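Dear colleague,

Following up on Tuesday's group meeting, I ran the structure prediction for the two-component complex that the binding team flagged. I've pasted the input sequences exactly as they went in, so you can double-check that nothing got truncated or mislabelled along the way. The structure tokens for the whole assembly follow below. Feel free to forward this to whoever is handling the docking comparison.

Inputs:
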Amino acid sequence: MKNLSKTLLFGAIVLALGACAPSGQSESQSSGACDTTVYSDECHLSLDYKGHNFVTDGVGEVQYVRHIDGDTTHFYALKADGTVDNTELIKARYNCINTPESTGSVEDWGYDASDYTHGFVENAKTIVLSSNRTDYGNPEMDGNGRYLCYVWVSDKEDASLEDLKLLNLMIVEAGFSPAQGAEDSIYADYFYDADRKASCEGNYIWSNEEDPRVPTAAISTTLQELVEGVRLNPETEEYETFNWTDPSANPHEEGEAVPSSYRVSFPCTVAYSYEDGGDNAYVYADYSLLDDPSTTRRYGIYVFGGYKTITPLRRPGWKLQMNGIVASYNGNLQITDVSYSALYPGDDYIEVIEQSDAAYVPPVVTAADLQDDYYVNQVVEIKNLHGLSGEWGTYGDESGTGYTILCEDGSGYRTYIRAYSGTIRDRNNSKVTITAENFEEYFCKEGETFNVIGPAVRYVNSKGDTFIQVQILKNENLTFND
Amino acid sequence: MSNVLKKGILGLGLCAFLAGVASCGPSGNDASFSYQPYDTSVYGDPSQLTATVYFWHTLGQNNRGWLETLISEFNKVYPNIRIQASQQGSYDDIKTKIDRAIAAGGTELPTMAYCYPDHVADYIASGAVIPMDGFVDDEAIGFTVEDGSHVEDGETVYGAGDFVQTYWNEGKAYQKEGLYSLPWTKSTELLFYNKDLFDQQGWTVPTTWEDMWNLCRIINEDWGSQVNGWYAPLGYDSDENMFITFCRQNDIPYTSNESDNRVLFNNDQAKSMVTTLKGYYDEGLFKTKGTGPNNTYTSSFFESGQVAMMISSSGGTSYANTPNFNVGVAPAPYSGEAAYVSQGPSLCFFANSSWEQRYAAWLFYRFCTESTNSALIATSSTGYDPVRISSYETEYYLNWVDDQKDSLFGQASQVTEEIRDDTFFTPVFPGSATCRTEVGGILTNVLLGTRTVDQAFSEAYSRCIAAL
């Protein structure tokens, strides 16, 4: 019964999403009927996967580990005896497709694309990865340390090559991605035919409809409400618990279309700008505490500019009416999908309320202050840190490399500092390049201390432990004490 | 798909396409195409023109916002023209889809699409695209002074003359006379460098290739030993561009549009140039995308600190914009002539469209490339440049430059503006895309030692001739 229910679920996913697809054929440039071929039924893996390892042979069975989004999944390889090889996490980037975003930033149909992929990889009985080659050999990787893969799924155990279906192709066929970068694919014809068919059918990315799961109208709120996880009920004038990152968790009417995220609008001031492929910023606002109006506290949040130039985010001191989607990334709230135009201001764009040069003065905190969430998403200054030990590696879902230092500051508590690999100024004001080999030398030297200005953020490690760390985002925000 | 098969499909497609188009409407085939001036007695005032324009593009979500804004603003002026824009993958994906649509009879072609000149050359050969000359000066809908103008030698210059001439003329450099593509937004190659490392080491940013090679030797000596694993003083993100740019800067023949002699790169000067580069490569002075691990862009290694400098597209400035260190930007080095490859998308317009659609598509293009709008597209796309000279003088663009003067994007835009008049394009014809790919392959194979210089050139030349 368990196996049957999963099989039914496997197929039901396809039916359910098909039933929810935006209706109607797109107004395509062709008036002909759409192709009815199911290309994913006709495309088959030609290399035998049994007894092979994807990492060394370019094809092999894997076990699902973690879902990321519509075109990225993490797996472990299965050994020849069927046991899991968890020594190397295979970060699989699906070849020849590019689904809309659903993490960090949100694009139309990104959530549905993510659900579609997730449903298959989580429920498949057999998953095989292959690479873009017709012989056995090392698979190709992209520039972000991910393997470029074809992901084959089946609801049967020990699936034959005939039973395996190419999920990458199914994603295109369903309308969640165009065929992208497929011209050199060994399955190029399938991808382009499926693309053409999906475009004709007019589902999802090919439809003219707006994704109901991506909000358009912004909810007027405050940073206090976002951070505290509450919302003022206008009828009762009472604050009620409200989940700003998971709309499905909030009460809603039966049959009401629930978006997958909220677009919000709130006043704030730019505290700290940060350029990384585009303009980003930490913003803040001060409010009286809900349960103690005599006390004021600061609330902060990170605004991800989405690799665009957004002038207001470059201006500490500027007062803005922020407009963006509330998201959670690596356990921290952030605002994403922001836009700004001096030329054609849009209804859901950032608005500049006041241009001010007032400098942001970060609160000076101690490690003791960072034992709870009070300062999360605020830019703080912490002094007299001494490093106890360090760890070099990737951070959360990011692909960049950096280092984490466990520090003490004399307050009796410890905290973490996190920085990207790169160049710092040492205590002699000389620029040095920090590497995996030397970073502990600079931060953990006996008797030496340093100061950091940066955002305090929440971090969840691989064991599920949550702690607060201060990030060094700019090299000038790190200074060594004499 | 093999070139032979592609040619077969396109050949069939040409017949099918012409048959299909003949039954549907006017053909883009030069033998029969004749521009029909906009007739208000037939189509009404242009502001009331009714049509649906299918626009294929490559824009990711980050860039779709400005496109949607422009469509919305366009519709305030032209409320009855519907722009149906869709992202179709990469440039090569668009090319493949258009080739397939041509082969299938042409009824599924868009009205207008992002393109590279090499692609348009193939479309011209299929009769799939129309020349745009007539639209430019049309009395009712052609360019006006209000679209954008600048003053030159005391004269007001507008229309085609207000476009950066390299960008505009690229649309006329095809195997057949006519304006077959229009510039949309442009980029070039720049030198990005690890400014912190340069300051730390006291290195000087090179301006000539001789300076560059000398600096690379110094970098190897001063810095190479400190880097664990794979590294290079210089990374070049495009093997093809490296070959083509070196040819241009040193007056070495590459290709031409002389119908009886198009493929020119198989010559002693080019071989000598590649031999010299091989020497620098063996010295460890540089690496390219093709010679790097997994054919990965050198920008990935630049970001991780394994490459001290890289030559890469200004359109990819965001990839160079790393939080790991301060990045500097400068013109790429030159030898002989200062010449930098012109890149970036153009738009082409397809024959399988009605005259209403063609006029509407032209009006949309004209609107989007008005001075301020062209500046908007460029500044929103980060690393790209406006296509009109007057765009650089708009309040909007000047404010943006000032706002971004401390950012890498702002600095890159200053450099690209400086070298704008030194950008070049190469002749395009059916098979020029193959030439581009093959010369990149020559460089890669010789540098890696998988081919001798003579072998690499001979094989590449044969394939290019076969692709004509």
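Residues 1-9, 11-20, 22-28 of chain A have pLDDT under 50 and may be disordered.

Cheers,
M.
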